[in-house]
Amino acid sequence: MSTDTVARVRQVDPAEHAFADQLAFLAAYDDGPRPPAWRPTPRAVVTFIVGSNGELVLPKGAKRAGLPGKLTIEPKFVGDRALVERCVVTLAGERGLLLVGEPGTAKSMLSELLAAAVCGSSELVVQGTAGTTEDQLRYGWNYALLLAHGPSPEALVPSPVLTAMRSGAVARIEEVTRCLPEVQDALVSILSDRRIAVPELAGTEHATVPAAPGFTVIATANLRDRGVSEMSAALKRRFNFETVGPIDPAGQGGTGPGEDAVLGGRGGGRGAGDRVPGPARRAFGGGLGRGETLDGHEHRRGRRGGQLARSGRGVLPR
Ligand SMILES: Nc1ncnc2c1ncn2[C@@H]1O[C@H](COP(=O)(O)OP(=O)(O)OP(=O)(O)O)[C@@H](O)[C@H]1O
Ligand SMILES: [Mg+2]
Fold first, then answer.
1. φ, ψ at 246 (rounded to 5°)
2. Mind giving me the DSSP string for 230-260?
């Protein structure tokens, strides 16, 4: 295998590459108004994720070279359409979105699909761990340049969040509750002030980096993890919570984990080993079929799951 081949073939293709044709088609298909910096309309983002339920025909005026005249968008996320709509409305309002749920319920997949559709990049990601530092959410320094020339915009190393702020894109924070509370709190000022102060560059035009229109954050958090840090009330208030539940075998789709998951009862947690790898998933049409489960077990949905999700109470581990 030549080095050239190795460079181009990817084991997992980011959603914006894997579904580039669909995203281009949807941007042309729906020419309605869009929030600042959004590529497709909010309605087209929902269609991209839950599928078009039939063939879409490009209007005559929207035809362009390289775009197919008709396309069927297959569902990628199996679940409640209303959940996806609420996520899209949250992002259109430039509010932070926090996806919570049991392991393997497609929180990361949904966050990747949303970011890819909204701003064309799902790659501005910070993976939350106990070792995540504030620099990874704000900025760091290139120490060689810093020592040679002192603080300068060139020596500043932007975090994925800062890059998203500059370009009006979506920043993704995976497993936010695994970060220590003081690290999580860096997000409070980012989400409320919509700027990052760089005190080292005080007195210059680079002393603050304001967020461009369109900037927002999608975070994910797991309900079953041990060793997580509770989110401060201040940070919780800056996010809209959405609970992603396991796929319901009755065909209702995952809308909430229910009391089981929240209170630690008989939930349907899945391990990493049960996941469907990307190529297999795409081979089966981009997701699991309606009513299918990954492990073949029934997952029960509680009655109050949605309510808890909306109120944000009792969702995150204490
Ligand atoms: N509702 C669903 N629709 C489509 N695919 C799903 C669904 N639930 C799970 N899957 C499949 O399971 C895989 C695992 O999902 P993902 O890694 O996004 O879960 P997660 O909620 O982020 O898990 P964790 O909390 O462990 O990080 C997905 O990539 C997808 O293939
Ligand atoms: Mg995940």
1. -65, 160
2. PPPHHHHHTEEEEEEPPPPTTTT-B---HHH
Element (H, E) at 278: helix 278-283
Element of type H or E holding 172: strand 170-174
Both tokens assigned to 206: 């680079």
Residue 225 CA: which ligand is closest? 1
Q: List domains and CATH numbers for the chain.
A: 80-303 (3.40.50.300)
Per-residue pLDDT of the chain (318 residues; tens, 9 = 90+): 455 555 678 888 999 999 999 999 999 999 999 999 999 999 999 999 999 999 999 988 888 888 899 999 999 999 999 999 999 999 999 999 999 999 999 999 999 999 999 999 999 999 999 999 999 999 999 999 999 999 999 999 999 999 999 999 999 999 999 999 999 999 999 999 999 999 999 999 999 999 999 999 999 999 887 778 889 999 999 999 999 999 877 655 444 433 333 223 323 333 333 333 333 333 223 333 333 332 333 333 333 333 333 333 333 433
Atom of ligand 1 nearest to the CA of 222: 25
Looking at ligand 1, which residue's alpha carbon is closest to its atom 1? 78
Give the number of whichever ligand sits closest to the CA of residue 291.
1
Report the chain's terminal Cα–Cα distance, integer Å. 51
pTM summary value: 0.80
| Residue whose CA is at the smallest distance from ligand 1 atom 30 | 106
The bound ligand whose nearest atom lies closest to the alpha carbon of 244 is: 1
Residues in the ligand 1 pocket, defined by CB under 6 Å: 77-79, 101, 103-109, 220, 222, 247, 254, 275-276, 281, 287-288
Index of the ligand 1 atom closest to the CA of residue 79: 1
